[in-house]
Amino acid sequence: MSLKKILFIVIDGISDRLIDNKTPLDSARTPNLDYFAKIGINGIMDTIAPGVRPGSDTAHLALLGYNPHECYSGRGPIEAAGSGIELKEGDVAFRANFGTVEGEGSIFDKVVVDRRAGRIDETDELVKALNKIDLSEFGVKVMVRRGTGHRAAVVFRGEGLSDRVTDTDPKKIGSKVKMCKALDENAEKTARIINKFMEEAHRILENHPVNLEREKNGLLKGNAILLRGGGMVKKVESFEERFGLKLAFIAGTTLIKGIGKIIGADVLEVEGVTGNKHTNLKNKFNAALEALNTHDFVLVHIKATDELGHDGDFEGKKSFIEKIDQEIAVLRELDFTEICLVITADHSTPINVKDHTADPVPVIVVHEGVRTDEVDRFSELVAYRGGLCRIRGIDLFNIVLDLTNNTSKFGA
Amino acid sequence: MSLKKILFIVIDGISDRLIDNKTPLDSARTPNLDYFAKIGINGIMDTIAPGVRPGSDTAHLALLGYNPHECYSGRGPIEAAGSGIELKEGDVAFRANFGTVEGEGSIFDKVVVDRRAGRIDETDELVKALNKIDLSEFGVKVMVRRGTGHRAAVVFRGEGLSDRVTDTDPKKIGSKVKMCKALDENAEKTARIINKFMEEAHRILENHPVNLEREKNGLLKGNAILLRGGGMVKKVESFEERFGLKLAFIAGTTLIKGIGKIIGADVLEVEGVTGNKHTNLKNKFNAALEALNTHDFVLVHIKATDELGHDGDFEGKKSFIEKIDQEIAVLRELDFTEICLVITADHSTPINVKDHTADPVPVIVVHEGVRTDEVDRFSELVAYRGGLCRIRGIDLFNIVLDLTNNTSKFGA
């Protein structure tokens, strides 16, 4: 049996609850998605488990055969990996913002006046300076990497660190910067290191030329770095080690890129891919077709449907789905004797909830020989009638490995 | 996101296997239940797992988010809790009957001639006398509480007790009362205590004025107390601790009340609620509507459908279901933007089996935004076509928490 290749199209938060008896997906004109529903087998899926509201990160882990309860360690490590830091087991990683603080005394006596430092973007030199902070007295090294705009990732590396510590970001304007506190005895050293880092970072940033220049121009200084979402990096077996398949990710958002990095995917850079509704879908799908030449499993993530769900924008979501439908037409030319195409989502982001919910998502699996069913359009309102019935993310992954001969018999 | 409230209507054993191509539920005229099916999302449910025959107690635990494999410790503790005894972790509790024994010698030489002591009902004074039995030589205290008719609950409290002991109820007329035996070494003390209790109880009951009066009137004496279903009380986190929701139970039977007590529900007393087919359903549903003002989660249990299933009474079951349908009409007025209504059962009690079976039960979930489906009547024969597909009790619970925003996101 020859091994077939796999293409996952994950449309973030595409599905909804009923609103005035409709949903954006169900009411969108989607002839191409409907075509795939017609020639494929359909179902409804709980990416993690019924009633469990997935994050996009935990959902992607589940869709790729990983148990998020075992290998998920919070958002910090994923954002850090997504920003390009090469993580090691035992690192403690945070998401970070450049913010503006004012007041007298130590960093922890000062008050946050803007959590985004006036949406500062010129952080390259600031980050370079922060990377020079010396924590060698603790046997620890700090790594800082910028993200988009005011965002950054901060990673501490060394022996005996712990992630049982609190955030330093107060998450509220007008509040003092929080001192990092240990949540158990073993985390006390880590808390001391982080507080030392916070003080040093403030000292360096306060008088950094970039900030003095901003001040002169009447802009807020990025004079503090605020940490949140800390997690310790766990050892995660790479996708290739685990399943013997070379994996590529095509995604615009740091979070999804980070998931890719953590499981050892090649995270491809594609021009015009932004992680929002202006993303270049044509480039994305073409990049996927190309990646299938060099990889066994390609995952394409499309973010804007989720954003439009968070915004509660019914018409915007519907029309973006129609745009996806137009561009996805290029996948009709795939050779489904060689490629297994999966179209699904990581979770629902209903217009009337404006956040992720556990409502299950529709799935289409297109491959030679799948048992087609009565479902002839892509909609969360009809997918449950499909031949897959109601499955979980991990089931979908295993079903697809089986369809493509990437699995072996259990028993004789 | 505002938190919505939840109303569960659990109709005990409502569903059946096919008998002459029909079932009581499927052939009953149920316009109101059908209305809820039409405006809701439907499915078929294994309360514990496919093929596992649930008790009403274990099924209710599963429906409320508890794993019965972890927290169920036999019927004794539940009946004792339902009878009103405040249990503590480590107590060993039994269901008990007042029975009639005859013969010479010790209690264990005597023969049971009636397991219900002629359906004795005047047990208040007998129970009072049994509570005075002194087991202080063992460091143990006994608590006895009457149930309906000949029924009672018996609880032993003290250090080092075990539930690895056998029943003293022989469960057969004409058999000798059984000596309690230890099933392992650590239970030997407990067995000695129970046998001492059995002897003392018989000594007191044999010549108790209530029994002497019965004897004079030609009635059987309640001169022995027969123990069965012993279990050790485990620590169970309360529903409010676990889910942050205030829970109310409206139920007529001691078993279901006991489940409520064990997980810390407010077990409401409602006039005319009997746990049989003469129960006042109108009062029950009205009490539920009122309880929704003070509680987040209200469970109404309706028992008679199960009894009629145990009796093999097709027409009786069908007509009681029609009676439920008439009274449940009052719930049509609920505001389903604020309340999530669930109508389901704990298990099937098929007419042709006369006992619980694992055949899955129909479920309706009514709430704003649920994805309605093609199912437009409440029947175990069509529910599988609904949008929920086939789920488990724990799934239903988690799905409802998600629909009502009583859950949080796993991941980012």
Automatic annotation (TrEMBL), chains A, B:
Q: Which GO terms describe its molecular function?
A: metal ion binding; phosphoglycerate mutase activity
Known SUPFAM superfamilies for this protein?
Alkaline phosphatase-like (SSF53649)
Named in its record, the pathway it takes part in is:
Carbohydrate degradation; glycolysis; pyruvate from D-glyceraldehyde 3-phosphate: step 3/5
Reaction catalysed by this enzyme: (2R)-2-phosphoglycerate = (2R)-3-phosphoglycerate
Q: Could you state one GO biological process linked to this protein?
A: glycolytic process
Q: Where is the Metalloenzyme domain?
A: 4-401
Q: Which residues cross the membrane?
A: none
Keyword annotations for this protein? Glycolysis, Isomerase
Enzyme superclass (EC): isomerase
Hydrolase keyword on record? no
Lineage top rank: taxon:
Archaea
The record's EC number reads 5.4.2.12
PANTHER family per the UniProt record, alphabetical: COFACTOR-INDEPENDENT PHOSPHOGLYCERATE MUTASE, METALLOENZYME DOMAIN-CONTAINING PROTEIN
Family recorded in the similarity comment:
Belongs to the BPG-independent phosphoglycerate mutase family. A-PGAM subfamily.
- What HAMAP family does its record include? ApgM_A (MF_01402_A)
Role this protein plays: Catalyzes the interconversion of 2-phosphoglycerate and 3-phosphoglycerate.
Please give the name of this protein. 2,3-bisphosphoglycerate-independent phosphoglycerate mutase
Taxonomic source organism: Archaeoglobus sulfaticallidus PM70-1
GN (gene name): apgM
